[in-house]
Design brief:
Elements lengths: L3 E5 L3 H13 L3 E5 L2 H9 L5 E5 L7 H10 L6 E6 L3 H9 L4 E5 L3 H19 L4 E4 L2 E4 L4 E4 L2 E3 L3 H12 L4 E3 H9 L7 H15 L9 E4 L3 E4 L2
The structure holds calcium ion.
The site of calcium ion has 5 residues, from loops.
């Protein structure tokens, strides 16, 4: 199936040019010409990539990107900026854009960027990443954990918590960080839920849960994964 690209651009000539170029390359292209409409389309979640102009009527490109990320949309975004918008480029990347390209750009440069971003997003979506710490092996694709060949059964939430720790090896994670990453931003729960799940993970993963080697408590803050 053709990869679907949403072009968000208010200049009709640029939008048409982009659509023609991308369709020639075999992409399925749709165009939105203002920020609010673009956000609505992005939230439908059916695009593989968004080319997002920075200066737009309605809502600007930075806001569109921020809102989409806040709503959990992970679709890759390439920002289209004009010369002199370098500061906005940095902000754009912080807000969750995957890359940017400065106008005027060549068709070749644009296609190279698009392909690179699509490849990265497909790789990160690929299952089967293997993590190791101590004697423990975690296969995130199969959702399997084992120690010295023996399967360790984790609940879905414990597995998700372990994944979050693996993604943030060596970093102190606050209780709030863990709640947000594991249970989601809107979940209403007490700190105790996090303590309990870490406790269970320690019992299952640590050789000596009383003296954890991997799931280290950081007093008054949260935990650090030292795997
Ligand atoms: Ca514009």
């Amino acid at each position: 199936m053709n990869e679907r690209i949403l072009v968000v651009e208010d200049e009709p000539t640029i939008a048409t040019g982009l659509r023609d170029d991308l369709e020639l390359e075999g992409f399925a292209v749709e165009v939105a010409d203002d920020g609010t409409a673009a956000l609505g389309r992005i939230l439908e979640g059916k695009f593989d990539l968004v080319l997002l102009d920075l200066m737009l009527p309605g809502m600007d490109g930075l806001d569109v990107c921020r809102q989409a990320r806040l709503k959990g949309i992970r679709t890759p975004v390439i920002m289209l900026t004009a010369k002199g918008q370098e500061v906005d480029k940095v902000v754009g990347l912080e807000l969750g854009a995957d890359d940017y390209i400065t106008k005027p750009f060549s068709r070749r440069e644009l296609l190279a960027r698009i392909k690179a971003v699509l490849r990265r997003s497909q790789e990160s979506a690929e299952p089967g990443k293997i993590h190791r710490f101590g004697d423990v092996i975690v296969d995130t694709g199969r959702c399997e954990v084992s120690r010295r060949g023996e399967r360790i059964d984790l609940t879905a939430t414990e597995f998700k918590l372990l994944q979050v720790f693996l993604e943030h090896r060596g970093q102190v994670m606050t209780i709030d960080d863990l709640m947000r990453e594991v249970w989601g931003r809107d979940a209403i729960l007490t700190d105790r839920v996090v303590y309990t799940h870490v406790h269970h993970l320690r019992n299952k993963l640590e050789e000596n849960p009383q003296k954890p080697r991997f799931l280290i408590g950081v007093r008054g803050i949260g935990y650090r994964f030292d795997g």
